[in-house]
Amino acid sequence: MSSIIHGAGAATALSTFNPVDSKKLTNLSVRSQRYIVAGSEASKKKSFGSALTVRHSQKLIPNAVATKEADTSTSTGHELLLFEALQEGLEEEMDRDANVCVMGEDVGHYGGSYKVTKGLADKFGDLRVLDTPICENAFTGMAIGAAMTGLRPVIEGMNMGFLLLAFNQISNNCGMLHYTSGGQFTIPVVIRGPGGVGRQLGAEHSQRLESYFQSIPGIQMVACSTPYNAKGLMKAAIRSENPVILFEHVLLYNLKEKIPDEDYICNLEEAEMVRPGEHITILTYSRMRYHVMQAAKTLVNKGYDPEVIDIRSLKPFDLHTIGNSVKKTHRVLIVEECMRTGGIGASLTAAINENFHDYLDAPVMCLSSQDVPTPYAGTLEEWTVVQPAQIVTAVEQLCQ
Amino acid sequence: MALRLRSSTSKSNFLNILRYNNLGFGTASHAARHLRTHDPTLLRVSQNPISRFCNTMAEKLSSVGENEDANAQVMDFPGGKVAFTPEIQFISESSKERVPCYRVLDDNGQLITNSHFVQVSEEVAVKMYSDMVTLQIMDNIFYEAQRQGRLSFYATTIGEEAINIASAAALSPQDVIFPQYREPGVLLWRGFTLQEFANQCFGNKSDNGKGRQMPVHYGSNKLNYFTVSATIATQLPNAVGAAYSLKMDKKDACAVTYFGDGGSSEGDFHAALNFAAVMEAPVLFICRNNGWAISTPTSDQFRSDGLVVKGRAYGIRSIRVDGNDALAMYSAVHTAREMAISEERPILIEALTYRVGHHSTSDDSTRYRSADEIEWWNKARNPLSRFRTWIESSGWWSDEEESDLRSRVKKEMLEALRVAEKTEKPNLENMFSDVYDVPPLNLREQERQVRQTIKSHPQDYPSDVPL
C-alpha cells in the first residue's frame, strides 16, 4: 500500500527537498481533472487521496527531516537548480507547442537577467524569444494582442516591481477582454518574473506585488517555491487558457532539487502540503516557506507539531486544502513576505474567518513585513522580512 | 551595407578582426548574428530560419580597416557612424513649412488634376458611399435614441465617415483591426449588420459581447475586429503584438489600429511605435486627428506639427492625408498596407479631419467651441458630399438612388432599434461566465449568493433580465 510521506526537510537553502504528496493529489476540483499529473503507471495506482489520510500518532515527531520515499518504479530523475527547472519547463512547452513564445527585456541573446531563458533564443530564433525595448506596458500589451490572435506569449518582467508599469494593460485588457468580448477572444498569457526581498537590491527592486494584483478579475496568480513546483507551475500556466501571473523569488533561483524525468505539471489552483501536523496550520508561500520550515525544526524540538502548507495558488486560494487543515488543527498562522496592510495574508485571513470561523480556537495570526519600503542596509533589510525566531514565538503564543 | 563573405577562411579572419577590435561580441555566433547578409547560405551559424538582423553593427563593421582621413573623421558610436560639425547647431523645433497633406478630391469633390490615386471600381465606390450614408444615418438615429432615453450612451462618428469606410475598403478581411471607439464604419464595411450594432448598444442577449460592455464597444472575432477597450491607446501595443503574431505565421495580412490626436499623448503610443519599428512589425497606425480630445484642442495636446512628424522620430514611414477625402484615404491605406506587409514595416498615417459630433452623449461641445465652427465643417467640408459629387460625376450615382438608400436605411435602422429594444437581456449566468475559461469555486459561490438574494427579494430584480 502507500507509504507514508513526511513533509519536506529542513529549510536551509542548499538542501534537497522531496517532492511531496501534492503531485499525487487527485480530484480536488472539477476543473483540475484535466491536469492530473501524467506520471508513470505505477504512481497512478497509488491512491494517496488528500494528505489528511496520512495520519501520525499523537506522539511527538522527533525531527522535521523527511525520510526518502523508496520508489523504484519511477525513473531516477535529475537534479537541477530552480531557474534551470523554469527554463526546462519553458523549453519543453516551446517544443510542444509552436505558438508559445517569450518576450521581455534581455531575454534573447542575453538569456534573461536570471538566466531563465538561457539558450532559448539560439534554439528557437529571435522571433520566438523576443528582446523588447524598455517599456513594460508596451510589451505586455503586445503579448495581449498576440495572444488574441493565437500565440501563447510568456512575458518576463525583469523584476516583478516593473509590472507596475504594465498595470493598465494587465488590469484593463488582460483580465477583462475575455469577458467584455463575450468570450470571443482568449488571452492565454503567462506573466512571470522574480520579486520579493533580495540581498540589498534597494526599495524599488524589492517589491511584493502579489497583493496589488489580487483584485483583478480574470487573472490567476501562483507562486513557486521549489524546482519541482516551479517547472510544474510554469508548464501548467502556459497550458492554461486564462492569463496567469507566476511569481518567482530572487533568492530562490539557486535552490537545488531532484525532479522527475517524465512530463508533469502542477495544478494551478492547489496548495502544497509541505509538512503534515496536528497542532497548528502555518500557511505560507514562496521564500517564507523556508523560514517556516526552519522554524518548524525548532518547534519540533520544543514539542510542537506544526502543519505547514505552501499555498502556492494566490488567486484563487485553495480553501479546500486550507479548510481541511484548519478543521484539524483549529489554529492558523500566516507567514508572508507581503506588507502588512492589504497583503495576501490580509485577504487570506478574511477568507479563513469567513469560511472556517467555527473551527478556530484562536484568532488567525498573520506575520508580514512592515509597511515600509525595503531599506538598503543589510541588517535593516533582514528585519523587514519575517524571521524564523518570530515564527517560533508566534506559534508558542497561539498554542498556549 | 551588406558584407558578403565568400569563404569560411575569410569569415574566420573577419571574426578575428571583430574580436581584435574588441567590438564586444562574446561568441562567434553572437557576432555572426549581427552581420547583415542577404544570402541565406552564408554565415548561417544558428539553425533557426527566423532571425532579426541588427543593422547597427553592419555600418560599424564596414569602417573596420578603412583608412582614416582626418578631415572625414567619424566616430563609431553604438548605433552607427556620425559625422562631426564644428558649428553649434540645433535642429529647429519645427520646420518652416508644415508637412503637406495628400488629397485627391478638392473641396467641391472634383478630381484634382495630375493626382495620384488608386483606382476604385464602381462597385467598391458605390459600396463605400452607401456605407458612409448608412453610418451617418445609424449615428443620427442612435444619438436621437439616446436623447430620448432609449439608449444609455452613444458616441457618433459624424464627420469621420470617410476615414472609417475608405480605410476599411482598402484593407482585406484578414487584416486584424484594433479600434479606439470611433471606428464602427470598419465593422459596417465588413458586414456587421444594423441589427448587430443595435444589439450591442442595448446589451441584449443577441449581442456577441453578451451585454458586458457599454454601447459602441463593439467586437467581432469573425470579422477580425477586436473588442473595443475603453482605455485610450492601450490597443496600440496590442496591435503591434498581433502584427508580430501575423509575421511569425507569415500571413498575408497586417494589423491596423486607430486612435485619435488625444491618444497620441499616451505613453502607449510612443512605446508601440518604437516597438513596431524595432520588431519590423507589419502594422498600420491610423491617427484620426480630428482637432479635439473631448474639450482639449490639439494646440493643448502637442506642440509638434501634428502626428506625421512623430513617425520619423521612431524610424517609421509616415504620411499625412486629408481624412475627409475618401479617395485619398483609400489610396493611402491601400499603398501603406502593401508596404507594411511586403517590407515588414509599420506605417503611420495621419488623417486630418474634424469631429463634428460631440465627444459622446455625455458631452455638449458647444460649451468649448463655437457652433459656427461645427456647422462649417459639417456643411463645407463634409466627406459625404465630396465623395458623392465624384461618384455622381462618374455616372455611378443619382438623386433617386440617394433618396432610396436613405429611406431604406432609415427604415431598417428603426426596425433594428425596435427589435433590439424588445429583446431580452442576457441571463444572470453571464455575469459570471467568461471571467475565466471555467467559473472557479469563488465565482460559483458568489453566483449562488446573488441568486439567493434575488429569491428573497424578487420585487427588486428587473423584469427583463432572465435568471
Automatic annotation (TrEMBL), chain A:
Keyword Nucleotide-binding: no
Coiled coil spans: none
UniProt KW keywords: Oxidoreductase, Pyruvate, Thiamine pyrophosphate
Cofactor(s) of this protein: thiamine diphosphate
EC number from the UniProt entry: 1.2.4.1
Reactions it catalyzes: N(6)-[(R)-lipoyl]-L-lysyl-[protein] + pyruvate + H(+) = N(6)-[(R)-S(8)-acetyldihydrolipoyl]-L-lysyl-[protein] + CO2
Superkingdom in the source lineage: Eukaryota
Gene3D superfamilies: 3.40.50.920, 3.40.50.970
InterPro entries from the UniProt entry: THDP-binding, Transketo_C/PFOR_II, Transketolase-like_Pyr-bd, Transketolase_C
Claim: Heme is one of the keywords in the record: no
Residues annotated as domain Transketolase-like pyrimidine-binding: 80-255
Protein task: The pyruvate dehydrogenase complex catalyzes the overall conversion of pyruvate to acetyl-CoA and CO(2). It contains multiple copies of three enzymatic components: pyruvate dehydrogenase (E1), dihydrolipoamide acetyltransferase (E2) and lipoamide dehydrogenase (E3).
PANTHER family: PYRUVATE DEHYDROGENASE E1 COMPONENT BETA SUBUNIT (PTHR43257), PYRUVATE DEHYDROGENASE E1 COMPONENT SUBUNIT BETA (PTHR43257:SF2)
This protein's name: pyruvate dehydrogenase (acetyl-transferring)
Annotated organism of origin: Camelina sativa
Gene name of this polypeptide: LOC104757354
Automatic annotation (TrEMBL), chain B:
Signal peptide (residue range): none
The organism's place on the tree of life at top rank: Eukaryota
Record carries keyword Ribonucleoprotein: no
InterPro entries: Alpha-ketoacid_DH_E1_comp, DH_E1, THDP-binding
Assigned keywords, A-Z: Oxidoreductase
Pfam families: E1_dh
Every Dehydrogenase E1 component domain range: 132-428
Name the record gives this protein: 2-oxoisovalerate dehydrogenase subunit alpha 2, mitochondrial-like
Gene name of this polypeptide: LOC104708190
